[in-house]
Each structure stands twice: as structure tokens, then as C-alpha cells.
Amino acid sequence: GSGINPHTRSTLLDNNPVSDDMQEASDMIKPCFLVHSIINAEGKICNMVGGDPYEAWLEGTKLVYKIQKVPFTKEADVSFACAGGYPKDVSLYQGCKCYDPSDVVTKDGGIIIAIMEASDIWEPAAYLGSFKYDTEEEMEKALREHFTIPFFVAFNLFCMTHKYTIYLVTKPENFEAIKRTNQIPVATVEEAWKLAQAQLEKEGETDYNIAVMAHCASIVPYKK
Fold this sequence. Notes:
Low-confidence stretches: none
Shape: globular
Number of domains: 2
Largest sheet: 5 strands, parallel
Structural class: alpha/beta
Number of helices: 9
CATH class of the largest domain: Alpha Beta
Oligomer: single chain
Radius of gyration: 19 Å
Order of helices and strands: HEEHEEHHEHHHEHEHEE
Distance between the termini: 32 Å
Helix content: 25-40%
CATH architecture of the largest domain: Alpha-Beta Complex
CATH topology of the largest domain: 2-enoyl-CoA Hydratase, Chain A, domain 1
């Protein structure tokens, strides 16, 4: 019933149980060498790391952070977020790349306007099929009993829908599927923005911050 462990957020390496588990798994097979390519936002190799498995991996994380970090100074009342277009948003599962950066930059109780085509909305079936619980507690209990990656990714989004209002701009034929996820489906960015403005006005917000992230899959936002 504790939800997502905040220490598992990206960029956190120390005392991160997921990172620790991955390092432990690596130590079990005792690799002698590692080589990794560093991919930029255009999908091209821009650097390489190699050598001691842990040291090379750690150097790789520093290089990725250097090329992908994007600073912000204040949490946004409204965040516009897109994974970066096809194939990053071919499905809701793939398009989920836009949610974690939004979670970092959006204030608690704020609004996220996610944008994805999701032409293959039902894949994988295990992902959308995980949205069948009424509460976060029920879903977390089921996840702990039968953990899978799609189930966990679904749980992460379900938790976010209780923390923020999330409007999802997508194809109208996806609306019924999207409603299962506790998001609000809309057909256009303009429609989502009007709904967001009405919500802000109702909350008495007249001076608000907006974040626009068109390539969420390629950025690591950090607060200055």
C-alpha cells in the first residue's frame, strides 16, 4: 500500500533498490568486460563506453545525463508532454515514456496533457488488461502477488492519475480504452487546453506555469 518507491526515480543511483538489484544480478554472472553505445535524440551513436562493467556503466550514465538533462526552475501547473512521435508512441505502453518526465516537472495536483497517436492501442494486452482495479491499494496488492513489467508500468500510470489530472490527446477510436486507465481522452490539444484552463479558473489559478516537452523519451528534466 505504499505505492512507487520514490528512491527508484531515474537519475537516483545511490540507495536505489532497482539499481542495486541490477548491480547484484550483474555481479552474479561475473562479467569481465562491458561495452555500451550512447544514443542521442536522433537515434545515432554519439559516444561509447567500455571496460570494467560497473565503471563503464557509471561513465555511461554520466554521458547520457550530460546530453539529455534539461533544467527547470519551478514545477509547472500544466505540462504538455509527447514521447516524441512514431515509433515512440505507437501504443499507450510505448507512449508512457512521456509520463515520468511529467511527474518530475508537474506540481502535485497539477495537470498533464499527454499527446500520443497510439495506433496500436491494445498492445501488449497484458498492459491494458492491468487496469481493472478500483484503488491503488488493490492494484498494488495484485502487482506484488504477480509482478510483470507491463503490470508495473500500468500501476505507475494509475498512481499518476490519482496525483494529477491527465488529459490524453489521441485518436477518437482509442477513447474507450483510455477511459479504463483513469485518464481523460480528448481529440485535440486545443480541446485539452480549454479543459485545463476551465479547471485552473475553477481552482482560482490565474497566474500559472506551463512546461512543454515535445521529446520526453530523450530528456532528463532536473530542477535547478
